[in-house]
Design brief:
Elements lengths: L5 H8 L4 E6 L4 H12 L3 E7 L1 H11 L7 E4 L3 H13 L5 E4 L4 H9 L12 E7 L7 E4 L9 H17 L6 E6 L9 H14 L7 E7 H5 L1 H6 L12 E3 L3 H13 L4 E7 L5 E2 L7 H14 L1
Parallel strand pairs: 1-2, 1-4, 2-3, 4-11, 6-9, 7-8, 7-9
Antiparallel strand pairs: 5-6, 5-10
The structure holds dephospho coenzyme A.
């Protein structure tokens, strides 16, 4: 398993260069990340959006657009549909969100006829590198599924473990976190956690070791789990955190970045191509690393 997010760049560079279709590309941060990825030889961009603005931004950041395909579609919805179409027709292998709302792009992706569904649930997987944890930490789902039910949580776990498998960890440790370590029938997340853990124990879900319910302290700290008398292979050594819902995951995601000094890379899994869906607040480096992640696992 890779140890650092920079290792994603090495893996991505070793692959055939992948074309990335950027929906509504006229966003300075996104274009800077795309410029870096193109310079590193990780991806070849196709920029879909307002060409005048794309060229203006490129001028401002010193991005040489010669040889780069630009498709002039100023309307953000139509640009999203076109970027999705490029993937569907095999003209690009990675989709990236530019200056368009997440909902508009995801609706184009989920369109039954023209979208990128392959029968699986789509979900967001983020990887974090922080000084305060001994390895990369996955967090899911901070951006797509609002309030996943039991079966959706299982699909979300499967998407996250696929990322870890592709990055060299054949058996990642998954913690299903919430507020407590014990099962409380009034807290649905603890019931989900117990059921999914037992399904893993009984080998109904394979390719990972799952434990839950766990609180976040016990999941990431061996000492905290010992103080709480928790016996668990996952506690203190977790690879992937499954949060109870989008709010919990999103708060953890942004806390790690803004309070924990972490760097992150994230991707949407479950579609016919990986989707890079960074948020406006993400650092430029995280946007670049997300492109590297998408290229590395493709
Ligand atoms: N995977 C696969 N299919 C899905 C998924 C999914 N995760 N979500 C919905 N679908 C399918 C449904 O089965 C249905 O067939 C169709 O798509 C429409 O489903 P709706 O009506 O439930 O979904 P929408 O179109 O109203 O919304 C889907 C979104 C992904 C846009 C919605 O879930 C959403 O807004 N998610 C949160 C996005 C967000 O705001 N993130 C913020 C952090 S960046």
């Amino acid at each position: 398993m890779i140890k650092k997010l920079n290792d994603l760049v090495k893996i991505a560079k070793g692959k055939t260069t992948r074309r990335i279709a950027v929906a509504a590309a006229a966003d300075p941060d996104v274009m800077e990340a795309i410029q870096n990825a193109a310079q590193e030889g990780i991806t070849e961009p196709v920029l879909v959006g307002n060409e005048t603005k794309i060229r203006e931004i490129a001028g401002n950041i010193g991005f040489d657009l010669s040889g780069i395909e630009i498709i002039n579609i100023p309307d953000k919805h139509d640009a999203s549909v076109e970027a999705v179409r490029l993937i569907k027709e095999g003209k690009a292998e990675i989709l990236m969100k530019g200056l368009v709302s997440t909902g508009i792009l995801l609706k184009a992706v989920l369109d039954k006829e023209h979208g990128l569904r392959k029968g699986a649930l789509l979900s967001h997987v983020a990887l974090f590198e922080t000084l305060y944890y001994h390895k990369l930490l996955g967090v899911t789902d901070a951006a797509m599924n609002v309030n996943p039910d039991l079966l959706e949580k299982i699909s979300i776990i499967k998407n996250a473990i696929e990322v870890f498998h592709k990055l060299g960890n054949p058996n990642p440790k998954v913690a299903i976190v919430g507020s407590v370590e014990t099962i409380n029938p009034k807290m649905e997340a603890t019931m989900h956690a117990a059921t999914i853990s037992m399904m893993n124990y009984r080998k109904q879900i394979t390719g990972c070791i799952i434990d839950g319910p766990l609180a976040i302290d016990g999941a990431v700290s061996k000492r905290a789990s010992e103080i709480k008398n928790i016996t668990s292979e996952v506690a203190g050594d977790v690879d992937i955190i499954l949060a109870p819902n989008i709010d919990g995951a999103n708060i953890l995601y942004k806390s790690l970045n803004f309070l924990g000094g972490a760097t992150s890379a994230a991707v949407i899994m479950g579609a016919t191509a990986p989707i890079v869906l960074t948020s406006r607040g993400d650092a430029e480096r995280s946007k670049f690393l997300s492109i590297a992640l998408a290229a590395a696992i493709n």
